[in-house]
Design brief:
heterodimer, A: 2 domains, B: alpha/beta, Rossmann fold, 2 domains, six-stranded mixed sheet, four-stranded antiparallel sheet, 10 strands, 35% helix, globular
Chain lengths: 343, 247
């Protein structure tokens, strides 16, 4: 990760590559035996995981109940459409707003905590929302959830674009994803992101040099919940429904696994890698065995024990090693040259 | 009027009285030493003065303003900075970034999500200037966690200085430093002495007697003696408690 005094460009090569690879999936995904909906789902999870990593990786704040805000976004989008007739943009903005508000409310109760107490409180609040979704039949539809959520047309002013096909909706979601990606990259490299990372490293020192630690933690949670809400709204459109399972403890756990496996603790790109690995494993391993999660869980345990910095950590370690061995080679080569010059 | 005044501070933890009726004044521009044996209450006193603990009774004022019971953040933003005895750095960040993150610029801009500190050359330069002051200019790009012990101690002071304080508290700055490190620290503090008000906790007598304008001796949670180093050498309390003999 770049340090605070290093300038971070607005758009980077990995960003362009990620978006370009995603953008071309309609051309080759079917050829390798996969399907377009998979790319859509992976992208939505990438967005959710990136938002979660703002807390876990940058703030060091373990939220183990983040599925709640993913679900709140999905339900909010569905309810706004079904009860208030909201269109595409209004529905998405509404979902972001509702998850931000509820996130802000929860954050107000937990931001003076950290570590295990923080984690437990996030689980508790997550379960509260899940329970509400299950039991408040008249609004949430109980266990069945909200069905028949539509993918509204995208109005461009001069023409309406239908998002009903998976390809069309995929491209729309890709634009949302790309914008969110740039915004999050900017955010983590802004003074806000820098101080947040300083708080993760040493909360006490951060307050003694004059930073309002509580407010940073509160804001980080609220922002993270709104990203989760945006991802959830896209998920509701993708699935054309919203149901309690979306905000279950499972989903809260999955997103943590994605962030850790990918290496969110050491890299901005960890969550992106993690979501890809997780959803692909689910589909590819899942095709062979129903117990894929068992095997994935074992890999996860191995990862946490031996490679706690995830895939991105392995990559960084390999690069650092290569750099030192290259540097060593260069000195070996340049030594005789220098000797020759002196002579 | 003194820059900083603490009046009749009391602090107890459970049934243990740690500070009993402590009053201290620190004059603008002076260097005050606080000394006393281990467990005398020096560190608790520091923690009460800098807002980590709230006193049970008594009050603290800074530049004529009552700051009793304010949070560390509020006290810091009024211009009081401190270093820690047990080191408290941002270990993954470079030395330069440790200082930068503690600067008033970042404190003001911290909630900005659009700025990029990497483009703020003024903030960077002043962070680098602080780093040079504490003798770490050539270590700017090394992460705090990889610095040597002595360098980390210097960075502790650098981070405290970065906030551009009017009053600087240093908690046992010589702890664990060898003779050479201590000598370098004396040099640094002698330079800072003219520029801001400093309060140092120490049990290295020689160090304090060399540097301080005034010294307060704390024992059993009370101030048992106060005065200039020369006055203290004469003080029967100090001599009886075998502190003067060392000086």
């Amino acid at each position: 990760m770049l340090g605070p005094s290093r300038y971070a460009p607005l758009v980077t090569a990995p960003m362009l590559i990620t978006v370009a690879v995603l953008a071309t999936t309609p051309l080759w995904l079917k050829q390798i035996g996969l399907y377009q909906y998979l790319a859509l789902e992976i992208m939505i999870w990438m967005l959710f995981a990136l938002g979660h990593n703002l807390l876990l990786g940058y703030g060091g704040l373990p939220s183990f109940g983040h599925g709640a805000y993913f679900g709140i976004g999905a339900y909010a989008f569905g309810l706004l459409q079904l009860k208030a007739g909201a269109g595409l943009i209004a529905g998405l903005l509404g979902a972001i707003l509702v998850s931000a508000l509820l996130g802000a409310l929860v954050a107000a109760f937990i931001s003076h905590r950290r570590g295990i107490y923080y984690a437990l409180l996030t689980i508790a609040f997550g379960q509260v929302f899940w329970f509400v979704a299950m039991k408040w039949h008249s609004v949430t539809g109980g266990e069945d959830g909200l069905l028949n959520i539509k993918r509204p047309d995208l109005s461009l002013g001069f023409a309406d674009v239908s998002l009903r096909s998976n390809e069309a909706f995929f491209y729309f979601a890709l634009v949302v994803f790309a914008v969110a990606l740039i915004a999050l990259w900017r955010l983590v490299h802004s003074p806000f992101g820098r101080v947040l990372r300083a708080i993760k490293q040493n909360e006490m020192r951060a307050s003694f040099v004059g930073h309002n630690v509580w407010l940073y933690k509160w804001l980080a949670f609220t922002l993270s919940a709104s990203i989760a809400g945006l991802a959830g709204a896209l998920f509701a459109m993708a699935q054309q429904s919203a149901y309690p399972n979306v905000m279950s403890l499972h989903n809260s756990g999955f997103v943590v696994m994605m962030v850790l496996i990918g290496g969110g603790l050491v890299s901005f790109w960890g969550p992106v890698i993690g979501a890809l690995v997780f959803i692909l494993s689910r589909d590819l391993l899942g095709a062979y065995t129903e117990t894929w999660l068992l095997w994935f869980g074992l890999v996860f345990i191995g990862m946490v024990l031996y490679q706690p910095n995830g895939v991105a950590g392995v990559w960084q370690a390999w690069r650092a090693k290569r750099r030192t061995s290259l540097a060593a080679q260069n000195t070996l080569v340049s030594l005789p040259v220098a000797a020759a010059k002196e002579a | 009027m003194a820059l900083f005044e603490a009046k009749q501070l009391h602090k107890r933890f459970g049934d243990q009285v740690v500070l009993e009726n402590i009053s201290l004044t620190f004059e603008e521009g002076q260097l005050t030493g606080i000394m006393g044996p281990n467990g005398a209450g020096k560190s608790t006193c520091f923690n009460v003065l800098t807002g980590r603990f709230r006193p049970d009774r008594g009050n603290v004022s800074f530049a004529g303003e009552d700051i009793t019971g304010l949070s560390p953040r509020e006290i810091a933003s009024k211009g009081i900075s401190r270093s820690f005895q047990i080191m408290n750095l941002f270990n993954e960040e470079t030395a330069l970034d440790n200082v930068l993150l503690s600067s008033p610029t970042v404190r003001k801009q911290g909630f900005s999500m659009l700025h990029d500190l990497g483009r703020n050359t003024a903030a960077r330069d002043s962070a680098f200037a602080v780093l040079s002051r504490v003798g770490l200019a050539d270590k700017a790009d090394i992460s705090a966690g990889s610095l040597s012990y002595g360098e980390r101690r210097a960075l502790e002071i650098g981070v405290a200085l970065a906030a551009e304080p009017r009053l600087l508290f240093l908690d046992e700055p010589t702890a664990g430093l060898g003779a050479e490190g201590t000598a370098r620290l004396v040099e640094l503090i002698a330079q800072l002495k003219r520029q801001l008000t400093i309060v140092i906790i120490e049990h290295d007598m020689r160090f304090l007697f060399n540097l301080a304008d005034r010294i307060s001796v704390i024992h059993w949670g009370q101030v048992i003696a106060e005065g200039t180093p020369n006055q203290l050498r004469e003080n029967p309390w100090v001599q009886r408690s075998n502190l003067g003999a060392l000086a």
